Amino acid sequence: MTLPRHIAIIMDGNGRWANKQGLPRIAGHKVGVESVRAAIKFCLAKKIEVLTLFAFSTENWERPKEEVGFLIGHLFTEVLGKEISELHKNGVQFRVIGEIEKLDKKLQQSIHEAEKLTANNSGLKLVVALSYSGRWDITKATQQLCYEVEVGKLKSSDITIELLNDRVSLHDLPEPDLLIRTSGEKRISNFMLWQLAYTELYFTDILWPDFREDAFTEALNVYENRSRRFGK
Ligand code: IPE
Ligand code: IPE
Ligand code: MG
Q1: Is 92 a domain residue?
Q2: Looking at the domain assignment, is residue 31 inside a domain?
Q3: What angle do CA 130, 193, 198 make, to 5 degrees?
Q4: Is residue 60 in contact with ligand 2, taking CB distance under 6 Å?
Q5: Across the chain, what does the average pLDDT equal?
């Protein structure tokens, strides 16, 4: 079986899942954490190299204050605190991409500690995109290049695709082979715009809290039957 080296997931549909049960949106986010656990377990078992999870976008800051407070101030902080030792035991290397300066200090600190603790692990690389957007990522890389021109390290005519690529998030890892989006929406929603250039896209109607092992297996089966040509 041809397995993807890098799987990226837009975990969508928590709010709709909760609505369907007559519960507040927050309840969907809580059950969504169970699906995150299941996805990590699945990738560990399949020996996938990289799993990138879109957890909170730049645009998600514009949601109601209570929802943002719950996700950032409570859920992510608590889950990270509780899970990190288990991830470490399983050899997971944990990383966060995104504008983490916008997160509260306590969460920033737990992120740094978790990254440091697991930095030398050689198992699954688990990347969480938090306060992340593709346009932010490309803008940040552009800023870096401009700075290097400003201080005379580079000329603008030296700039190539490779040089920009070296400054976007996850440039040291293989690009995503498979992007999964749950909940029936068929869009990228400002996720890894640069890195998804040749990624296979897979959309399922299943809502994220219901996305478990069988659904993941189905996505891999579909991927296996895709023919990737990279324009050649
Ligand atoms: C995805 O579920 C989780 C986040 C974006 C944080 P949503 O909260 O977007 O759920 P829907 O799309 O409203 O159902
Ligand atoms: C994308 O989902 C972001 C995450 C899953 C973190 P959204 O629910 O924010 O995207 P839209 O609003 O449907 O495009
Ligand atoms: Mg959504």
Answers
A1: yes
A2: yes
A3: 125
A4: yes
A5: 97
**Helix H segments across the chain?**
14-20, 25-46, 65-68, 77-89, 105-118, 134-150, 161-165, 213-224
Tell me, yes or no, if 137 is annotated catalytic: no
Number of domains composing the chain: 1
pLDDT tens for 25-75 read 999 999 999 999 999 999 999 999 999 999 999 999 999 999 999 999 899
- Tell me the pTM: 0.98
Is 56's C-beta closer than 6 angstroms to any atom of ligand 1? yes
The answer to whether position 196 is within a domain reads: yes
Domain that holds residue 88: 6-142+176-224
CA of 12 to the centre of ligand 3 (A): 5
User: Known catalytic residue: 60?
Assistant: yes
**53 pocket-lining for ligand 2 (C-beta < 6 Å):** no
**C-alpha span between 13 and 136 (Å, rounded):** 23
Residue to substitute in 10, 11, 16, 60 for testing ligand 1 pocket (most ligand atoms within 8 angstroms of CB): 16
Name which residue sits closest to atom 9 of ligand 2, judged by CA.
Answer: 60
Residue spans of the chain under pLDDT 50:
none
The Cα–Cα gap between 88 and 148 comes to 36
Q: Of the ligands numbered here, which is closest to the C-alpha atom of 9? A: 2
CATH number for 205: 3.40.1180.10
The answer to the question of residue 37 being in a domain is yes
Distance separating alpha carbons of residues 182 and 212, to the nearest angstrom: 11
Identify the pLDDT of residue 1: 80
Q: What distance in Å separates the CA atoms of residue 205 and residue 211, rounded to the nearest whole number?
A: 10
Atom of ligand 1 nearest to the CA of 71: 6
